[in-house]
Amino acid sequence: MSAESARAPRRLPRLVVGGRDLTVEAGFTLLIVAFVAVAATTSDSFLTPVNLTSLLKQMVTVGLLSLGMLVVILTGGIDLSVGSIVAFAGIVTAGLAADLPIPVAMAVGVASGIAFGLVNGTLVARFALAPFVVTLASLTTIRGLAFVYSEVPIAPADPAFLDLGTAMVGPVPLITVIMLAVFAVGGVFLTRTPAGRSIVAIGGNAETVRLAGINVRRHVVAAYTISGACAGLAGVILASRVGIAQPSVGVAFELDAIAACVIGGASLSGGRGSVRATLGGVAVLVLINNLLNLYGVQSFWQQVLKGLIIIAVILVQRVNRSRG
Amino acid sequence: MSRLELRDVHKEFSGVEVLHGVGLRGDAGDVIGVVGANGAGKSTLIKILSGALPMSSGAMWMDGERVDPRSPHDAHDLGIRTVYQELSLVPELSVTENLLLGAFPRRLGLIDWKAADARARELLVRVGFGAIDPRERAGRLSVARQQMVEIAKALISEPRVLVLDEPSAVLAGADLEALFALIRQLRERGVLVIYVSHRLPEVLQLATSIVVMKDGRVIETLTPGDTGEDELIGLMAGRRLEQIYPARRDGHGQVLHRVDGLTRPGEFADIGFELRAGEITGLFGLVGSGRSELARCVFGAAPAVAGKGAHRSPAEAIEAGMALVTEDRARTGLVLGMTVRDNMSLTTWHSTSRGPLLDVARQRRDVAAMVDRLQIRPAGCAPMPAVHLSGGNQQKVVLAKWLLRDPRVLLLDEPTRGVDMATRVEIYRMVDELARQGLAVLLISSDLTEVIGATDRVLVMHQGRITGELRSADTGEDEVLALSMGRPA
Ligand SMILES: Nc1ncnc2c1ncn2[C@@H]1O[C@H](COP(=O)(O)OP(=O)(O)OP(=O)(O)O)[C@@H](O)[C@H]1O
Ligand SMILES: [Mg+2]
Predict the structure, then answer these.
(1) Per CATH, which fold does B4-237 belong to?
(2) Domain spanning A57-317, CATH architecture
(3) Could you give the ipTM of this predicted complex?
(4) B124 with B134: CB under 8 angstroms?
(5) Which residue of chain A has the CA closest to B347?
(6) Of A124, B143, B361, B409, which sits 20 to 30 A from A93 (CA to CA)?
């Protein structure tokens, strides 16, 4: 081969351990370590127990929403209604807490999320409506319902309402443990169960899946129901964490959830995405927020910077993949 | 000075080299036939010279000039037109839009649709595919028709080099003749044609030289006059193939599936036939005869309007022990982004799970056994995304997916499309073995030799109706072809 004709292949090294490509995982670990290192050296308040605990708690809402969102995105859909479900589930739980035992009120909150997800899924699957349109409509409908239920914030008097949001398991908040458990279950669901694999396959090629005798509609409905359930749980946890439920909470939460999935490498056209990388995406997002807060960056500038950082992370991912 | 020359081309994918220094040269007016087993590297070579993939190292010249197409657009500007192995039309757009994409005739700045349709029609007639309606949506055309539109699209302006990757795999009869006539015309006009195919007789007939590839290398360049089918197969497979079709089966068993009066207006009408245990029934028909539509309907993928013998849904069909290998592997056969293992186990996920969890160990075992049995290459492909496999190997994955279901009634729509001879022989042997074990098989094929050679009985369709039923042992290609064109034999 002459020197003139040689065209050197340009590839980034990949990390393969025991036959598994861990490049993405390693990339996230590196990114997160870098964030933490920068934060710890530039801000005195970062490595304090108070800040770390609050970081772990902040991950929970966006984490739960992202997992549900991932399941929907894998089918090739999108769920814009999750922010509204957070508000509805929270306000209903807080409202019912006055008359019902708190666990029951919370269960009703989660159930409301499931019900909304079921409706979204049914509209998308049974009537073949575009997911964007369906969930855009339910975004406003459910937000409206939250205000119909109560125009003003509700703060339950019973201090037991705060238990869920404040309890600790050793050094880790209970709600963070719950979120990690949901991610673990989600990971097993998507990689190890027929239903989970079917959901991923549907996003890749629904017709092939249908011809393989798999009920495509039922799995699509299931995906939106899972997203609704996650959003309902997130709403209940958020209300319990801050002690007060507001009908206006959760605006634009869906965008963070989508961003976390995309940072984690999920394809918005479906069929590709990973639970672990999405958790990485969640961590990155929450760290960015936390850092900008600690630096006292003004909130509008925070939005600008956050957007730019997200684009940068996604670009790095893309370049990495296309050279693979 | 040659029209095209490639020297010492290497290509690797994520560190694995699949082309090990390939060379190729041809003059204006040549037809270079490229043959080789599945996964030999034919499509990869073609994607490199058409700018769709970068080479890892190597060099390329055209008419004495060093060229380096880095994108399909570059190659297009150089006069290299390519029809890829996988269909690439936009299914939602009309034939006209697909053909003229980016080059619409305009009037007052707006697209002049009348002129566009007229130009598309003129192009189709010029290349011999005048039967296609330019206003039809591409996705509604049969695979063969889509293939013809792809070819027409490559000829919208005169190319210097025309590359065809298995253009004939789905064509038969008059369509095939039209393609051959077209290639001869192009030759006379001084176009260099590169023709990849597994159909050796047509390569021997068309090519001026034949390049044999094996495991990422060109192992031989031959002149059609000095070689024959046997030698080519021997070179590709690395061994001689004794007999292509197994002996016919006799003493057929009970009827496993009966179709009666089945009708879908516009596609087929009043179809009746029986599939018996131990029998392989061939189904031959030209483009537009309704053969694939019929198979889809029987399988429950499209509802029947009248008649008996169609399932209500694929799920019901599968439950009843039926399987359908569809003709378009990219659209209906595979989830391209998923692994080979996932694709193969798609049909058994729900039936073999243990409790709520997949039986991963069993899945791995089954998939490994199938990879071995069908000789899918590379041998370690199970964790690879299906899209990284060569076309013929993808086809084997689709077949494997259904074989893992242990069907009783097997509908095969062009199961050997793009599959090399050695593997075809293996597939015929397997289907034969399955039939002998008591399966009923319907083999739809546009390959006349296959549809007669591998079957016991041939049904012939013409314009949505069955026009003949023949015993394979007593019929010939002429008779089947005549019936398929609506002429009495
Ligand atoms: N994107 C890719 N990533 C990894 N491997 C690839 C990729 N594309 C092709 N290969 C591998 O390169 C080899 C050659 O494939 P290629 O498609 O060129 O074969 P082919 O000769 O066209 O076969 P066929 O007759 O089946 O179409 C195969 O082993 C295939 O798995
Ligand atoms: Mg190929």
Answers:
(1) Rossmann fold (3.40.50)
(2) Orthogonal Bundle (1.10)
(3) 0.85
(4) yes
(5) A212
(6) A124
